[in-house]
Amino acid sequence: MMEGVVVKLPSFPFLNPSISSPSSSSSLPLRLGFRRFSASLPAVKEGSVSLGHLTRPDFPILHQEVNGSKLVYLDNAATSQKPTAVLNALHHYYEAYNSNVHRGIHYLSAKATDEYELARKKVATFINASDSTEIVFTRNATEAINLVAYTWGLSNLKPGDEIVTSIAEHHSAIVPWQIVAQKTGAVLKFVSLDENEVPDVKQLREMISSRTELVVVHHVSNVLASVLPIEDIVIWAHEAGAKVLVDACQSVPHMVVDVQRLDADFLVASSHKMCGPTGIGFLFGKSNLLSAMPPFLGGGEMISDVFLDHSTYAEPPSRFEAGTPAIGEAIGLGAAIDYLSQIGMQKIHDYEIELANYLYEKLCSVPNIRIYGPKPSDKVQRAALCSFNVENIHPTDLATFLDQQHGVAIRSGHHCAQPLHRHLGVNASARASLHFYNTEEDVDDFIRSLNDTVSFFNSFK
Amino acid sequence: MSSYYISSARFFFSKFPISFHSTNPFLSPIKPPSFISFQKISTKSPSPLRSSSSSSTQLQPMEELPPKLQEIIKLFQSVEEPKAKYEQLMFYGKNLKPLDTQFKTKENKVEGCVSQVWVRAYLDQDKNVVYEADSDSVLTKGLAALLVNGLSGRPVQEVLRVSPDFAVLLGLQQSLTPSRNNGFLNMLKLMQRKALELLIEAEKGGESSSNGQVVDDGLSPPSGSSEKPIENSILDSKLDENSGVESGSEKGSEESLSDLGSRGKRIREKLERELSPVVLEVEDVSYQHAGHAGVRGSDGETHFNLRIVSKEFEGKSLVKRHRLIYGLLDEELQSGLHALSIVAKTPSEAEAK
């Protein structure tokens, strides 16, 4: 690895001028816990200007019409939109310094390497990993989970070992472990939902035993909008000698996530859900764990020496990053992290709690609606998304009509959580999911359109 | 969204040569779709994605499509407003004969649909393929009904020749998401695959499997088929019409004569007078269109199926023949006749059939 050989000051693309703050330069991310500085943005709602209104101009894609109506994008849990800063970073990379990383000597490749490794540092800082070598770049969270399954899983699991997870997991957190369990003879155990329609944490605690080797859980559910007490779960798992893999896809983009405080062993997230480009994600793994894991994909970069009859492997994270990485995309993710940090994850979280409550409350007013997951309260926080069904109307019909007649983008289906839907007794649900650039007006538009849609279909019956 | 049905169906398609004419008189100007979904599907070697339907000059000629399907296409083309298209679609779905639960099996399930869709197929005594379908989503059910109505009761070869491109002509693409469109394609592919399987089994001569069995569904013999009340299955009437045509008798037209309203009678008289047809069938199918707003408010007699065999058509191109007929019925068209579905043949052509 060429880290540090050529020391050049990184030049950041100028961050969004519309979020102007007196000390913008000082909040640029550097190595040490900058993230803890609160962004110098005004309060979440300053007079009538919410975070949503403030940031909307940064997202060009939101300002368009679809099917003759203004676009109302409410499918953020599927993927988020990207601010101009990220688009510029990507463009600038390919325009000014695209070059292969780590092995080159020349100027461009040194610069590309710097920026790529800087992006890694930004990710590490963003989630408060103790070192950037604990961040492995992957294609997305799914690949990251597969990485753990095929390396840590295959080399550590033995017949009878237990993997504890929940029925509400995303398929990417279930299927790789099914495959590995089959290969190793390990057993998957599933925690069900409690009466609040949240994974039963008590049951989870009881399920963890000396036989448990791994606990795989989501931080925030992409269907139920519930938040799990990861810190507690990790304590229980560690007491039993088990490791914990946290699926943070729906949490990292929306709130402060601190892997040291959580003490998670593995944590995964995808860039495209946090305002970064697609094609890049990451695995966080504690150094000692990563060091003990055999390689995942074989090829260049992950080796130390290659002979005809054997090869030796590089140290993590390189060991798990075979081949030319998604360099531009990693840098784009870095720019996304800069953008988010500029606003401040706590501010984003606070605003989204408000939006979440507003969405839930408004949605409740739709007749014959059934919203999945817990009711929000002082003690129970919901993420800013709602999966729901309206009696006697198929969610696909809802989503189609909403899109065609109202330009409202929601999702219909099982949201990669078939076991959960089976448990809830439905084939599919509709889901509206928000991000910090959505506004209360978006919610109002959605509810109005939804009511119109429901009337249309009801009138036909 | 799974596409393995599409790729597996290509295998079938390559066996049946399909000719594409370079012009299609029935293409109505349609806005370029904002999604590029089914255009990928081509019976030729993989062609590049086309993002605009108007740039596609390789649509299957309408005449090759089953007659009912042609009619449905024309209907949807005449309905401009998306909401009205939905209503018409849902109307089809509402009138679809319910599918018995025992047929909602894995083999009958259409893969890749966001909602659940089942299609059942069997051969009737004339070796035509008959379809039944169901779905839990009303829009998807409408699409299924559209296909069932369009394809059911037709010979297997005709069904297999149907290229999915006709979906462009429906103009529903703008009203439906790409994933639904693909569901539509998968439905069609499944129906074609089942038709082929039935044909193969029937040719093997086997009667053991239920698929190859001649099914007597308690279909009533053709009687008053043209003016069935809306609640009854459109499927039944189609079968009746089909068996009427196949048996070569004029029963169908005799039946419809007695049920024709004043306009229908006028149409008959005019055509008989002007064309001295060898065969003339006039069928009032307005009830099929009762669902959409364009027809609401009129007192029926808006849509007719015409089948005319006459010497007058000799030497005239298809377009000329249609123009001739439209010309003769101009008065009717001005006073509430909405659409005609025309089959116009010369006596020699009819015999060659």
Structure described in brief:
Chain B: InterPro entries: BolA, BolA-like_sf, Fe-S_metab-assoc_dom. The complex is a heterodimer of chains A (461) and B (353). Chain A is of the alpha/beta class and 461 residues long.
Structural account:
The complex is a heterodimer of chains A (461) and B (353). Chain A folds into two domains: 52-74 and 345-459, Alpha-Beta Complex (Aspartate Aminotransferase, domain 1), CATH 3.90.1150; 84-342, Type I PLP-dependent aspartate aminotransferase-like (Major domain) (Aspartate Aminotransferase, domain 2), CATH 3.40.640.10. Chain A has a seven-stranded mixed β-sheet with strand order 4-10-9-8-7-5-6, with helices on both faces. A four-stranded antiparallel β-sheet of chain A has the order 13-14-17-16, covered by helices on one side. Chain A has a two-stranded antiparallel ribbon with strand order 1-2. Chain A is an alpha/beta fold and 461 residues long. The longest helix of chain A has 21 residues, at 440-460. Chain A has helices at 51-55, 84-97, 107-126, 141-156, 171-184, 201-207, 230-239, 259-262, 287-292, 327-343, 345-364, 395-406, 418-424, 440-460, and strands spanning 65-66, 69-70, 72-73, 135-138, 162-166, 187-191, 212-218, 243-247, 266-270, 281-285, 303-306, 311-313, 369-371, 385-390, 408-409, 411-413, 429-433. Chain A is globular. Helix content of chain A is 38%, strand content 15%. Chain A has 14 helices and 17 strands. In chain A, helix 2 packs antiparallel against helix 10 (327-343), helix 11 (345-364) packs parallel to helix 14 (440-460) and helix 12 (395-406) crosses helix 14 (440-460). By secondary structure, chain B is of the alpha+beta class. Chain B has 13 helices and six strands. Chain B has a three-stranded antiparallel β-sheet, sandwiched between helices. In chain B, strands 4-5-6 form a three-stranded mixed β-sheet. Chain B is globular. The N and C termini of chain B lie far apart (42 Å). Chain A binds chain B through residues 66-67, 393-394, 396-397, 399-401, 403-405, 412-413, 427-428, 456-457, 460, and chain B through 34, 82-83, 86-87, 90, 94, 114-116, 136-140, 174-177, 180.
